[in-house]
Design brief:
The protein is of the alpha/beta class. It is built from six helices and 15 strands. It has one domain: Carbon-nitrogen hydrolase (Nitrilase/N-carbamoyl-D-aminoacid amidohydrolase), CATH 3.60.110.10. Helices cover 25% and strands 25% of the residues. A hairpin with a 7-residue loop joins strand 11 and strand 12. The radius of gyration is 18 Å and the shape is globular.
Length: 310
Amino acid sequence: MSSKPYKIGLVQLAVGADKEATVSAHEQAIRDAAAQGAQVICLQELFDAPYFCKVTDAERFNLAEPMPGPTTERMQRLAKELGVVIIVPMFEKRGPGVYHNSAAVVDADGAMLGIYRKMHIPDDPLYYEKYYFIPGEVYQHGESRPADDVGPGPRGFRVFDTKFGRIGVLICWDQWYPEAARITALMGAQVLFYPTAIGWHPAEKEEWAVPQADAWRTIQRGHAIANGVYVAAANRVGFEPEPGTDGIEFFGHSFISDPFGRIIAEAGTDPAILVAEVDPDRIEYTRRNWPFLRDRRIDAYGPILNRYIG
């Protein structure tokens, strides 16, 4: 695992209905991020299509692709050309009737290191993800995994040893769960990447816009502090309509936090590219001075495996 500093990049864009135009725009953004020095670049959740889970519609399963597939292979060629790592979050068709909200991790030589499949699946107004996505499986130590589930890590939470450093990938709704962040950090992730598609319901924006964005930022900064890791959240922007609904306004505010919880790069609500440096020595320094991992009472945490303790 690398101990040298490296730069990470987040792409925050609006998404249109034309897939080729959308993928091309993200490809250009990756090139721009690489030109700014980014070596590990993360796209936003379900980056190649409008957020389609606002309604339940069986035709929308046609948006899914296998992984590897045409889009991930395109990103593999780009990663090799630029010498960068790319996190590619997409709607994955794993098999007939089996679909995931996934993120492929492509190394700087173009090799696919593996796939993370979203573990926590929401079901809320305009976020009907349980209709479309199966959660990622959980595997125990020593248990065999399907051939398409490659890469290190004993369970559904994953880490990836890239050319530049060991990273973890979690997706959107996962970002609210401290357990997901803790497990991924314990597996050695230096950065927790959170590709995201979160936005405001227009009718609620006046009351909830500021506190919702603040809560979203705060919970993830908490993961950085509690685990002594970098956190990088890439969210999309722009209003996406949906017939019969008020649509969703995706609020952006992508950011990168250091292990102390300090925001070292942040976007607003417009398209943006963020680049910041990750220094593994900063992780070591923070954990020495805030030894939360040292002082964990792992002998006392069994009850957390219960749904509820009444």
